[in-house]
Structure formats: C-alpha cells, structure tokens
Automatic annotation (TrEMBL):
GO CC entries: cytoplasm; nucleus
Pfam families per record: 2OG-FeII_Oxy, DIOX_N
UniProt name for this protein: Fe2OG dioxygenase domain-containing protein
PROSITE patterns: FE2OG_OXY
Cell compartments where the protein resides: Cytoplasm; Nucleus
Any one Gene Ontology molecular-function term assigned to this protein's record: oxidoreductase activity
InterPro entries attached to this UniProt entry: DIOX_N, IPNS-like_FE2OG_OXY, IPNS-like_sf, Oxoglu/Fe-dep_dioxygenase_dom, Plant_2OG-oxidoreductases
Record family assignment: Belongs to the iron/ascorbate-dependent oxidoreductase family.
Keyword entries, A-Z: Cytoplasm, Iron, Metal-binding, Nucleus, Oxidoreductase, Vitamin C
Domain annotation Fe2OG dioxygenase: ranges: 200-300
Gene3D superfamilies: B-lactam Antibiotic, Isopenicillin N Synthase, Chain (2.60.120.330)
Task of the protein: Involved in the regulation of shoot development and salicylic acid (SA) homeostasis.
C-alpha cells in the first residue's frame, strides 16, 4: 500500500535498485518545482577548501580563521583538507557502511524504526515536511557520543562495523572540537567557549546509501533541510550534495578526494545571533552508481537551553533568536505539523 510505512510493507530504495526497476514508484516522484535542476547550474558561489594544516603555522593561522569566518557568514559551509583523519580510517568506515547496506533486507529490518527518538534505527526517509513523498535513500542512524554508552547498540553485522565505524566516530569527534574552537575564535569568542555544552553534547551518525536511480531527475536522495545541531562533518564517496546559496541557487558541493564537508547547523546560527548561517542542503541521486555519505551531526548539550551568545548581542545586533534545546527539536520533527516550517524559523524573534 502506497502510504503505509509499517515495517512489513517497507521497500527500501536499495531493494528497488536490487530488483532492477526501470522506473521509480510514484511515492518517490516529486512535483516538478521540487525536482533537481535538469542542467548544470551557473556556479555563482565557490565553496572554499580550507587546508587545516595551516593552523599549525603561526604566520598564516589568522588568515585561515578569517577564511573560515567568511565561509560561515556567507555560505554556512566549507570543505577541509589535511584534517588529520587518516584516509584508511575514512575508507574502512565506508567499507563497513557498504557491507551493511549489502546485507539481506531481513537482517537490516531488525533495526527498522520510524521513531526519531530511537538511538539506533535503519530506514528510508519521508521528506522533511512529513508528507508522503519518499527520498531515494536508505540510512542507518545511531547515537555516537559518548561512544561507550551507545556502541553496543550499533549494528553487529558486519562483525567489524563497530570497530571500524567507532574509529571514525572518535576521530571526527576530535576534529569537531577543533573546528568549533576555530569557529568561536572567528566570532571573536574565547576558544574554550561552551566547553561544557560541547562535552555534554551529542553526536549522531547518519550513514546514508543512495542507490543508483533509474530516474534521477524526478526525485531526490534527501529533501532540502538544515541540520539542527552545531556543526555537521560529512564524508562522501562522490558528488551529490547541493547547498542553497544567498541568491537561492542550488550549488553542487564538488567531490574532493580526502576532504570532509563542514556544514553549520541551526544551533550555530542561534548561538552566533544570526551572524553565521545554517546551510540549507539536499542530496541529488544519479543513474550510474551508489553514493554513500557518513554524516556526523554534532550538537550542544541535549537538555540545556541554548541562545545567542551574550557577547554577540548589543544595540547594533539585538537578540534575534529564542533559546531552545535539542529535545524541543526532536519533538518538533516527530510531530506531523507541516505548517510550522523549518525548526529554525520557529525560533526567530520578530523585530519590534
Ligand atoms: O548525503 C548527503 O550528502 C546529505 C545528507 C544529509 O544532509 C543528512 O544526513 O543530514
Ligand atoms: Fe543534513
């Protein structure tokens, strides 16, 4: 049944790809206005590639921090290279991700859930507006920090999933701390700003598999959204990610071997009192091969209310967002009310 999302009737995008369907089921077909652009868009925005090894060189460090600040202000997204996560750690995480999605359906379905509060869940996704349009994507999502609290719940098949994915998760945790320090510094805040909220924060890993799609022009792998947290670190195997720039154009994020994509989330926009923007993004799919992404979503403490940094609120920059905590976000997205729009929009304070 088309609109039935119960486990027994669930057909994942990966299963449809394995079946070799030549057209996609109606529930994946988007209205024309929401489909990906049929032609390569004019690139009006260039996404910076930041070499993090420059942070060790005192003579260039301030230039790098400025570059990151500009990217956060203008786009809310940049790529990083020389980030000190070994290529082998990234490759092995992608290998176990691939093996997981290759498992028989029944095996994966043991982790199936549509409950966003579940710490580990496998599934497909409906669009952000919670209507009946699916995305051409399968995913496994799991809480990942503190790792010792959650790792025993992660997939046990393939047998080295926990070990390999665990290595990546720990490495990306270190990188996220480093990136947050630089981002705070670029805002003129202390490097150790929000230290406690970061230590008491959360990390969720979304491991996404976008199978080859027979009609990539009609659907998307993930619908437009911004991430809710502080920052997101994304590892991809080929291009497909697109971000919305200031002029409302969709800009493809090029695949750069060894690079990681950093995206700002809603918590960062709120914390910076709107100086930095959370980036709206989506994933397109393609006709020739699978694409994987491993997306590490970081957020400040779950139950602590977060608002704009006092240091960034003044007469010229009045407070423009309400405080919120991560739990409110979860409640928001598990509700079905599509009239509320994006979570961040509900936090914006109207100018008097
Ligand atoms: O796979 C991608 O490129 C985007 C995934 C994403 O936005 C997410 O998981 O939040
Ligand atoms: Fe995202």
């Amino acid at each position: 049944m088309e609109g039935d999302h119960s486990a027994s009737s669930f057909t994942s995008a990966v299963s449809l790809d394995k079946l070799g369907v030549s057209s996609i089921p109606q529930r994946y077909v988007l209205p024309p206005s929401q489909r990906p652009s049929p032609h390569v868009p004019m690139i009006s925005t260039t996404l910076p590639i930041i070499d993090l090894s420059t942070l060790w060189d005192q003579s260039v460090i301030s230039r790098t921090i400025d570059e990151i600040g500009i990217a956060c202000k203008e786009i809310g997204c940049f790529q990083v290279i020389n980030h000190e996560i070994d290529q082998s750690v990234m490759d092995e995480a992608l290998e176990v991700a691939t093996e997981f999605f290759n498992l028989p359906n029944d095996e994966k379905m043991r982790l199936f859930s549509q409950d966003v509060h579940k710490p580990v869940r496998y599934g497909t996704s409906l669009n952000q507006a919670r209507d009946e349009v699916y995305c051409w994507r399968d995913f496994i999502k799991h809480y990942s920090y503190p790792i010792s609290d959650w790792i025993h719940m992660w997939p046990s098949n393939p047998s080295n999933y926990r070990e390999k994915m665990g290595k990546y998760v720990k490495a990306v945790q270190v990188l996220q701390n480093q990136l947050l320090e630089i981002i705070f510094e670029s805002l003129g805040l202390n490097r150790s700003y929000l230290h406690e909220e970061i230590n008491g924060g959360s990390q969720t890993l979304a491991v996404n598999c976008y199978p080859a799609c027979p009609q990539p022009g009609l659907t998307l792998g993930i619908h437009p959204h911004s991430d809710y947290g502080s920052i997101t670190v994304l590892l991809q195997t080929r291009s497909g990610l697109e971000i919305k720039d200031k002029n409302n154009n969709w800009v493809p994020v090029p695949f750069v071997e060894g690079a990681l994509v950093v995206q700002l989330g809603d918590q960062m926009e709120v914390m910076s009192n709107g100086q930095y923007k959370s980036v709206i993004h989506r994933a397109t799919v393609n006709g020739d091969d699978k694409r994987f992404s491993i997306v590490s979503l970081h957020s400040f403490a779950m139950d602590r209310k977060m608002g704009p940094a006092l240091e960034l609120v003044n007469d010229q920059h009045p407070k423009s967002y309400k405080e919120f905590c991560f739990r409110e976000f979860l409640d928001f997205i598990s509700g079905n009310d599509i009239t509320k729009g994006r979570f961040l929009d509900t936090l914006k304070m109207k100018k008097l």
